[in-house]
Amino acid sequence: MPESDAVRALRAAAPSALAVLVRRYGDFTACEDAVQEALIAAAAQWPRDGVPDSPRAWLVRVASRRYIDEVRADVARRRRESRAVELEPEPAPVAAVDDTLTLFLLCCHPALSRPAQLVLTLRAVGGLSTAEISRALLLPEATVAQRISRAKARIRASGEGFRMPQPTELDGRLAPLRQVLYLIFTEGHTASSGDELARVDLSAEAIRLTRQLQASDPDASGETTGLLALMLLTEARRAARSDGAGGLVPLDEQDRARWDRDMIDEGVALITEVLDHAPIGPYQLQAAIAAVHDEAPSSVDTDWIEILGLYELLDRLAPGPMVALGRIVALAMVEGPQAGLAALEASESAAGAAGAALAEHHRTWAVRAHLLERSGAADAASLAFAEAARRTLNGPEQRYLASKAERLRARS
Fold first, then answer.
1. Within a 13 Å sphere around the CA of 107, how many CA atoms are in the beta-carbon half?
2. Tens-digit pLDDT profile for the chain (412 aa)?
3. Measuring CA to CA, which residue among 299, 300, 270 is closest to residue 286?
4. Closest CA relative to residue 160, chosen from 299, 359, 39, 27
5. Residue 16 near residue 100 (C-beta atoms within 8 A)
6. How far apart are CA 260 and CA 237, in angstroms?
7. Which residues lie below 8 Å from residue 329, measured CB to CB, with a gap of 6+?
8. Closest by alpha carbon to 19, among 102, 85, 110, 79?
């Protein structure tokens, strides 16, 4: 079987296998190490011998043996020989239920703060690297690594272990779970690094899990439905976001005939229904913004006044660097590039981490470059495009921004 099939099977089975081990043994760090060893063994064996009929059961079996071997080998240091004997379970079939959402909920542990829940879940379940998490959260990589380490230590110190939440705790875990799913989708939709514009495996998995969550959660807040609608309305444009060579195609230049109309119709129906009966939340507002884009027949026909109004409300409900940047783009489309540039300067000058994060992000430089180009400042726009290209780690984005800088430089 081709190696790509083995890799896909590994990615799909690993979170569920880890969930089984964590529920069985309770020691997250040791279980994660055991699953990693099983993944290494699978990566060597599956491409050669073929993917087993039940990849998850295979991983659980091998990882369990690794875990028990490690416990037994640790006798001299921690005197855990008797526990290791007790832990070895009778062979039993692995449940067919998808445990990935269960593991997400386990990682949203009550002993952890929200930031710690996010980084641990993105690392352990989402499979994102420390560097990818740092870029997604606009945090230094060292800070993310420290939070992951402290999160594991805090759970060990709490003595609670990894357990499923009680019904009374569930609501408190849904908000970080939604945020994790959103960040995984975002990393899939536009990869923060590498030579591919998107990581379709991540965005597809985020949509799949959000569908599961929406089907299993009463969703009184409406935010799970809003998140699913946002993902669908965004993913619907994926085919048109790149050209035949894999290069980036910006929204205003995309062939809208290539957008997935079925996905758009589903997303619009979801957000329309949830806005009728649930309190307005940030994911619903972002989905509504995406729906306005998707329903416009062309870029010039987009209702930017409505989008600006939605961003104003979103900025009050859930302010953040990327929300501020979206509002600035909408403002520039309504009031002109000079208004956008003034708002951008004001946002970057704002005190606090949000202003600093906005000033450093490559998308801020890309927005500045576009606004400068629209205002006729070709030289300044070229420099801003070049700076944006220097700051991004995504190959297609980098090439697009660098080519814009070069074209403007050649014209001036």
1. 32
2. 444 577 777 777 777 788 778 777 777 778 888 888 888 888 888 888 888 888 888 988 998 988 888 877 765 555 544 554 455 554 444 444 456 777 777 777 777 777 887 788 777 766 677 888 888 777 888 888 888 888 878 877 777 666 666 667 777 778 888 888 898 899 889 888 888 888 888 898 889 889 988 887 667 789 999 999 999 999 999 999 999 888 999 999 999 999 999 999 999 999 999 998 889 999 999 999 999 999 999 988 999 999 999 999 999 999 999 999 999 999 999 999 999 999 999 988 875 666 677 788 999 999 999 999 999 999 999 999 999 999 999 999 999 999 999 999 998 6
3. 270
4. 27
5. yes
6. 7
7. 340, 367
8. 102
3-state secondary structure of 357: helix
Ranges of H-type helices in 238-377: 261-277, 282-295, 304-317, 321-335, 337-349, 353-360, 362-374
Do the strands 393-394 and 193-194 form a parallel or antiparallel pair, or are they unpaired?
parallel
* Both tokens assigned to 157: 């110190």
Residue 66: which residues within 8 A CB-CB, separation 6 or more?
33, 34, 37, 38
Q: Give the position of tokens 């726009």.
A: 381
Q: Which two tokens stand for residue 392?
A: 């991004």
Scan for tokens 């060990």, then name that residue: 156
